[in-house]
Write a structure and sequence with these properties.
- It is a single chain.
- The chain has 192 residues and is an alpha+beta fold.
- The chain has a domain at 3-120: Jelly Rolls, CATH 2.60.120.10.
- It is 49% helix and 21% strand.
- The chain contains 9 helices and 8 strands.
- The chain has helices at 3-10, 17-26, 82-87, 108-117, 120-145, 148-158, 162-165, 168-175, 179-190, and strands spanning 28-32, 37-39, 48-53, 55-61, 67-74, 78-79, 94-97, 101-106.
- β4 (55-61) and β5 (67-74) form a beta hairpin.
- α8 (168-175) crosses α9 (179-190).
- It is globular.
Amino acid sequence: MYQQIDTYVNKCISLSKEELEYFHSLLQYKKVKRKSFLLRAGEKCDFEAYLVKGCARVYYIDENGFEVDLLFAVEDWWISDLASFSQQKPATLFIETIEDSELLLIDYKSKEALFKKVPKFERLFRLMIQKAYETMMDRLIANISKPAPQRYQDFVKKYPTIPQRVPQHLIAAYLGVSPEFLSKIRTRLSKT
């Protein structure tokens, strides 16, 4: 059960067998059906979750009642509402599974204990946050400077497995276009 997450961790830090076992002892395995909410806006997010299997999305609901997708996560990715988790305040985001999923969760207290006992994990989580920030900035710049067809092409290039796993209307919401407009983009691109 821990092989995937151990491979992920070992890309960034080296751990002894005892340190890995301690890390494993803090993780909670969770298996959930598709369309399950891991978090709803207003709840306190008390987890960071590593996806062992499955697909999930992170979104919010705008002032017009529309769901705005911020992130899709698949195997070997982490998901959370970072602001809610780190500040222990109510979440502004929803986290919902798109497929049946298996996750390994670490709660706030366990993560803090992990940092105290195995400080190397602070480096791992810092690197994860840096990567998430870089991805967020890339997306922000693309949304400002690139037309929708280019954003879609970049999305498919960067995340080639997601379009087969995520409904088109959710990808449209992620790209900030209507499902009909995304369908037109896909049709035009398939003819080139």
